[in-house]
Amino acid sequence: MSLSKGKHPHKRYTRKQKLSIGLFIFIVIDVALFAYTITRYNGYDLINSEKYVEFKMPKSKALTEQEWQALVKNTKVIKYPKVQLSKEIEHIKSQYHKRIKEYDMTMAEYLKEAGITEVQFNRQVEEMAKENVREKLVLHAIAEKRKISVSKTEIEKAKKGILKDKGVNSETEYKKLTGESLSEHIKEIDLESKLIYAKIVKK
């Protein structure tokens, strides 16, 4: 089944189609957990990440994605920082609402078709958020331990890459195109963490 709305923006979906869409939403978010959390600003650079997690510091300077996933899986979370966890929950819920709205459904319809209650939905979201936070804490704990940082030159190079990807030549053009300033976007995607991740995990 194609999930593109195409020429039918107001099409009403059958029960089976709605349920399929609901499952698709869940799978997309679940599979892309780290893609979301690693590219979003949550203030991890302002906290001491090491006090929140316990894990064996890897000896290798560069980890493969498989090694990274195994490291995170075996990490023990001592406690979750409240602000970061709250922001993750808020973000995941907003993603659900956005996708559901795109397919002309209400949240109530989604819950009914997915066969879950609001309490169960909130529990699922919280578990997803905790996994996101766990990965971010590990990332920044390693960066703090190894003194890994990002230079202004690297930030500027990445910013130019963002402008190029949007097909614009200046921050003024970027804001006109997207409706937000480049500095706001940089903070939203947590560009520094994204660049740190690239230094720790090699594809």
TrEMBL record:
InterPro entries given for it?
A: Trigger_fac_C, Trigger_fac_C_sf, Trigger_fact/SurA_dom_sf
- Coiled-coil regions, chain positions: none
- Cite the Trigger factor C-terminal domain residue spans from the record: 61-196
Q: Which UniProt keywords apply?
A: Isomerase, Membrane, Rotamase, Transmembrane, Transmembrane helix
Q: For this entry, list what GO says about its biological process.
A: protein folding; protein transport
Q: What sections of the protein cross the membrane?
A: 21-39
Signal sequence span per UniProt?
A: none
List, alphabetically, the SUPFAM superfamilies matched.
Answer: Triger factor/SurA peptide-binding domain-like
Q: Name one GO molecular function term.
A: peptidyl-prolyl cis-trans isomerase activity
Can you say what this protein is called? Trigger factor C-terminal domain-containing protein
Instruction: Name the species this protein comes from.
Output: Mogibacterium pumilum
